[in-house]
Design goal:
Elements (H helix, E strand, L loop, with lengths): L5 E2 L12 E6 L9 E8 L4 E4 L14 E7 L2 E10 L4 E6 L7 H10 L3 E4 L4 E6 L2 H16 L4 E4 L4
Parallel strand pairs: 1-3
Antiparallel strand pairs: 2-3, 3-4, 4-5, 5-6, 7-9, 7-10, 8-9
C-alpha cells in the first residue's frame, strides 16, 4: 500500500492529467506517517499541478501549482504553493458510524463535489470555490450533528 512512512493516493480524480508523483512532508502535523504521496502534472523541472485531493497535508488543494525541492534522498518534495487553485478540501471520517458512507458520498457527488477514498472510513472531498465549499460544509456539518461522520477542512487558516 505504501512505502515505509508514506501515505499513497490510489485513485486520483485527475489521473488522466497526471504524469508524476511528488511528496508532501506531513511529519510536523502530528501524522503517523512522514510524507503523503501526491499525483501531479509536471509543468517545469520543479513545478507541478496537483492532480489529486490531499488526504493528510493541509493548505494544499486539487489544481494548486506547487514548487518542489530536494529533501534528503527525495528529489521532489513540496516546498511552497506557487499558484493556489481556489479549490477547497474537506476530509470525512466515517469511523464506526452505522450510516452508509456511500449514501453520503452519493449526496456529495450530486452536489458536484469530487471525491477520493483512502479507505472505507476516510473520504477526501474537493470543491471548486468558496461558495461551493460553503454548500458542502453546511451538508457535512448537518451530517456530523446527526452522528453520521466527522469532518474537517484542509485549511489551517
Amino acid at each position: 500500500m505504501s512505502r515505509e512512512g508514506e501515505a499513497r493516493q490510489l485513485e486520483p480524480v485527475w489521473r488522466d492529467r497526471s504524469d508524476f508523483i511528488i511528496a508532501a512532508d506531513i511529519s510536523s502535523q502530528g501524522a503517523a506517517l512522514a510524507r503523503e504521496q501526491l499525483w501531479a502534472r509536471q509543468i517545469s523541472e520543479v513545478q507541478f499541478e496537483l492532480c489529486c485531493i490531499p488526504f493528510f497535508v493541509y493548505d494544499l488543494a486539487l489544481g494548486d501549482v506547487v514548487e518542489t525541492a530536494a529533501e534528503g534522498p527525495r528529489k521532489y518534495v513540496i516546498s511552497r504553493v506557487v499558484e493556489p487553485s481556489g479549490r477547497y478540501v474537506f476530509r470525512v471520517w466515517f469511523g464506526e458510524s452505522i450510516h452508509p458512507p456511500n449514501e453520503v458520498a452519493g449526496s456529495l457527488h450530486m452536489f458536484g463535489a469530487l471525491l477520493e477514498w483512502s479507505s472505507r472510513h476516510l473520504l477526501a472531498v474537493d470543491t471548486r470555490d468558496a461558495a461551493h465549499a460553503q454548500v458542502i460544509a453546511d451538508f457535512l456539518a448537518d451530517r456530523q450533528t446527526r452522528g453520521n461522520l466527522i469532518y474537517e477542512t484542509g485549511k489551517t487558516a
